[in-house]
Amino acid sequence: MAYKGSRDRAAKASPARRAALEVGAIVRTRSAYAQDVIAKHVDGSSLSPEDRAFSTKLALGVASSSGTLDEVIDRCLKSPSDIKSDVRDALRISAYEIMFLDKSPHAAVDQGVELVRSVAPKAAGLANAVLRKIVAAKQDFPFGDPATDVAALARSYAFPEWLARRLVADLGLESAVAFMEASNEPAPVFIAVNGLKSSDEEVLAAFESASAPLRAVTFGAYAVAGCYRLEVPRALQGEAVKRLFGEGKILVSDAASQMVAAGVLPKGRKPSTFLEVGAGRATKTILLQSNAKRLYGSQLDLYTLDNHEFKTNLLVERAQRYGAAVARACTGDATDLDAVFPDRSFDEVFIDAPCSGLGTLRRHPEIRWRITEKDIDALAETGFAMLVSAAGHVAQGGSLAYATCTVLRQENAETVKRFLESEAGAAFELDEICGNRVFSTRLGSRSSDAHFAVRMVRTR
Ligand SMILES: C[S@@+](CC[C@H](N)C(=O)[O-])C[C@H]1O[C@@H](n2cnc3c(N)ncnc32)[C@H](O)[C@@H]1O
Predict the structure, then answer these.
(1) Where along the chain is S-adenosyl-L-methionine bound (predicted)?
(2) 333 annotated to bind ligand
(3) Is 405 tagged catalytic?
(4) Between 1.10.940.10, 3.30.420.10, 3.40.50.2020, 3.40.50.2000, what CATH number should domain 15-140 receive?
């Protein structure tokens, strides 16, 4: 038989696959991000560098394609609902290898059988039969013509059909395909030099000495101050580079995030007070202050707000470590700013809005299978409510900035348009950001993530 999956052929599943199985199970049971679980369970493991790389590839691949893999697996099962979750986790790994990696199907089937055996010994026979059917089904994948059938197009890039339809409607077919393709590529690593604690010269020299030169990042004519692409990601493990992290001199942050943090700062005038809404764990807080120091020579009088207390606590700790001053770190609901800051306005309010995060799929591949159309409606509604609530807290002549890391129109341009057409938004006009009326980046090979941002000035 072609794919025996017997104990004599493969005594045990390989360490890389077992690690990927563990990651998949944790991601599923705890609704965790695969990247975070990999950082904890794979990066710090005793696996060889090759096994770590393969395990990471499998774990991220399965996270990004789980829905499509389940559809394929279910097509090959008599009663899909009878399959236990841990058996499905193991089948997904082999199905991913068979459907999306150019690997030998023999090895994938044998290893898949052993993986299933490791969690449910009695299911090994079933695994063998299912995986062999999957090898046969690959011939017909994506079960339709992607040129004429959106469901097949979605399957071929491992996207949910509703999302592929939405992307095609919002971006146009060509850009939607480019977006889906780029979303399945590895994410580049970008470094931000913390201008509060270091200089570009010091950081460049440290990476140079680690034989990992940094490349300055530009968006069109715009150079992003202190933003560099790391061409050799393993340099992050070097001692000199670890020291820079330990001393708060650099942080990892996507280039578009860095561009937004620079772009929301008004040129030529330092805001007297600045409120950052949706401040999370302080990444933009640090970038904002680092950019303020570069641009104005001193930090902002910065207030932050998030609705999660644990994030506010982390923000305070992290901002301190990176030397970023925070006048007051608040926890509260940004859709009701009157309750958090009664009778108080700011020279600038920046909303880093909660969004679907679809522009970051290379880093958080599982998002596409977790997010629903209802979530998109709710997120757009929250973004709009935050804008309306913030409008009353922007001083005359001050500005209101709004940013997301998604590409969907409903969360981006439509929310901003709805705000500008509302009673609260009538006092605002779009102003320039990063040389344009709207800042938006698209995914491409080695590009930044896809972000969106606008800045509006209060004219009356
Ligand atoms: C895009 S994330 C922020 C990322 C963060 N600025 C950073 O740079 O790491 C959006 C943040 O908005 C917060 N958030 C969501 N709903 C909120 C609300 N109603 N009021 C205040 N913050 C909210 C979330 O907790 C989340 O931290």
Answers:
(1) 306, 333, 352
(2) yes
(3) yes
(4) 1.10.940.10
Closest CA relative to residue 215, chosen from 229, 196, 226: 229
Q: Catalytic residue among 76, 227, 355, 405, which?
A: 405
Span 321-334, pLDDT tens digits: 999 999 999 999 99
The answer, yes or no, to whether any atom of ligand 1 lies below 6 A from the CB of 357, is: no
Q: Whole-angstrom distance between the N-terminal and C-terminal Cα of the chain? A: 79
136 alpha carbon – ligand 1 mean position (Å): 46
Cα(90) to centroid(ligand 1), Å: 35
pLDDT tens digit sequence for 198-222: 999 999 999 988 888 899 999 888 8
Show the DSSP H helices in 101-250 as ranges: 105-119, 124-137, 150-156, 161-171, 173-183, 200-209, 239-246
One-letter amino acid identity for 453? A
Of all atoms in ligand 1, which is nearest to the CA of residue 335? 19
* CB distance 381 to ligand 1 below 6 Å: no
Domain boundaries, the chain: 15-140, 150-183, 263-458
Nearest CA to ligand 1 atom 10: 354
Q: For the structural domain made of 263-458, what CATH number should be given?
A: 3.40.50.150
Degrees to nearest 5, angle at CA 457 with 268 and 280: 85
